[in-house]
Amino acid sequence: MEAKREAPEEAGPGRLSIRSSFTERSRPAGNASGQIVKSNYMCTAEAHILFRIVGSGRHSSFCSSCVQTVALLEPHTHAQCALNYPMQNTTGSGDAIFLAVAGFLASEIKHLLVPNPVSQGLEVSRSAYAYVPSIHHQCRPESTGKPLARNLQVHESRGSVPKGFSLDGPAPDEELLSLRMALVQNDMNGLLATLEDISMPSSPNYGQHLSKAEVEQFVAPSSQTIDTVNAWFTENNINATTINSAGDWLAFSMLVGQANNLFGANFSIFTHNASGKKITRTLSYSIPSYLKGHVELVHPTVTFVVPPAKSSVTAQRIGSTGVRRRSTDAEPSACEEQVDPACLQTLYGIPTTPATQSSNLIGVTGYGEEWANEADLAQFLQEFRPDVSENSTFPVYTIDGGINDQDPGWAGFEANLDTQYTAGIATGVPIEFLSVGSDITDGVFGFWDSANFFLTQDEPPTVITTSYGTDEDDVGLAVAYNLCNTYAQLSALGTTVLFSSGDGGVTGTQTDDSCTYFEPSFPATCPYVTSVGATTGANPETAAYFSSGGFSNYWGVPSFQSSAVSGYLSDLGDTNAGLYNASGRGFPDVSAQGINFVFIADTESWNVNGTSCSSPTFAAVVALLNDRLLAAGKSTLGWLNPLLYSTAASALNDITTGDNPGCGTNGFPATTGWDPVTGLGTPNFDALLSALGV
């Protein structure tokens, strides 16, 4: 949908003229003698008043900021505007003819209209207007030279400047903002209910994933929403473009001054203290009341994140002498020294035989201009998987200015790690890499843009792994919900969406001395993604101390998880009481090894720790399970969580020792069953295959 401005139609008896608040409002109006005078009246209610200077035949917008393009709709279509009334005229030289729409009583007009002091000689004739009763209306003179926001309602707000940011001052009125608007989707609740139905192993519809067209039918906005929002853009002379195939997201640009006016906002410059990066945001914004129910959010406004997103990888060069090549029959204890594909295959029972299903695909994402190097992957496979082909080519897609520079000296650590372990473990499963650059306008690191990229593909990956995230409260609630529901759309298509849980323990990005509460990670807390924590060691595995986990402040406990969470909290008792949301969605869901991984970058070997290691490892397991399912004529796994917390719970290796300290506490302890450090545990391939009935 592209919001296009139509040329205004000349007003006449029984007609309304729709005019832009920003391009028409300063047009001079003729007085009774045809002379030019200024008539700047401002409105604070939703009605459009026109007057025609009969002597000159001119038409001008009066109270032009009150233009409602819903005037073009049928009578009573909009609750606040009954606009299709016949207009009664009284003509005569020197009379201004006022067409008062949805507005004010005849006896009140002289009290409600206040001429601009610079408009000398403009008389208001009480007999020269059309009378349409019912809705209170008020006009007042303008003194600022800018349209005033009218009948706005606060849509999103923050109580204070978020932690880690400081306020510099107001943003210049001339600064250009790139904004997006999410429209209310037609039936998102219906999509989520359908997703739950097709993802519950006990449902007769289990595994019956939706088509792209079926998903879009749920999320596309209604025609009424499109018309109403399109009219608002036209009214304000703003060009908007649809940026996804479902049509529920629009992109547009405007100056700060205009945005402050239209949205009743105070866009300001904020500095991210740690990085020094500056962003323009507001602590609150409003929308016209008639857009409520049509507009879900305007963005970026109250979301405070600074690209690139935080990757959960830390690497140390170890050189070629520190690398120990293993045979594929390595003992699990080998993982104590160094983690490579062979030790993971042995530890988790992952098969080494090549996959056979060409429709099975792993998507790996990289942010902050990260890309994966094919030469490094070839070297990695030669050293650690000499039993497979060294054909290391894979498609690299770029969005938001992403990079695919195959110079090995510039490849990203995170990108190389993720591609090397998905390709090195999921033998024969093709991978694709999505490089997200720094030209980001989605306000959430490119997370939304990357999700939308996969949604537009005819055949999206069957599993997507992402090793990036942020603190949950960095992201506005409405934005978090919308992005989470976007991952639900991918899940409905049959894609498993994995995110690393983060490396901040219970602290998140806070420092211990400033920490007053446990900080959950996002998108790991989204119920429609599977969050992966980290473990270390073997015989037994134990929780990695940095593995982020806890409870969401945005989402309540989902039904699939309620038993697991309530059982854990019952055993936990009063420990950490008041530091976390005991009624929130718990994360992570599962875990995998996350310490002492070896990978190749610029021909050298590096040692790396983090849940960045864990997510691609689990993604490789999911991909191989999908391969077996497809070969058996079944569908891919899609949204994993309902399966994991039911029939597959016993197919995971339960991790019962370790914790994730922070904020001056020991954090949460790992224990029997689910816990907010390692989730339900680490993969056992054969047991998972059996739970799937393959």
TrEMBL record:
It comes from the Eukaryota. It is found in: Secreted, Extracellular space. The active site is at 414 (charge relay system), 418 (charge relay system), 612 (charge relay system). One of its GO terms (biological process) is proteolysis. GO terms for molecular function: metal ion binding; serine-type endopeptidase activity; tripeptidyl-peptidase activity. Residues 338-694 form the Peptidase S53 domain. Gene3D superfamilies: Peptidase S8/S53 domain. This is tripeptidyl-peptidase II. Binds 1 Ca(2+) ion per subunit. CDD domains: Peptidases_S53 (cd04056), Pro-peptidase_S53 (cd11377). Residues 1-31 are annotated as: Disordered. Secreted tripeptidyl-peptidase which degrades proteins at acidic pHs and is involved in virulence. Its EC number is 3.4.14.10. Ca(2+) binds at residues 654-655, 673, 675. It is an enzyme of class 3 (hydrolase). It catalyses: Release of an N-terminal tripeptide from a polypeptide. The keyword Calcium applies. InterPro entries: Peptidase_S8/S53_dom (IPR000209), Peptidase_S8/S53_dom_sf (IPR036852), Peptidase_S8_Ser-AS (IPR023828), S53_propep (IPR015366), Sedolisin_dom (IPR030400), Tripeptidyl-peptidase_I (IPR050819). Its cofactor is Ca(2+). GO terms for cellular component: extracellular region.
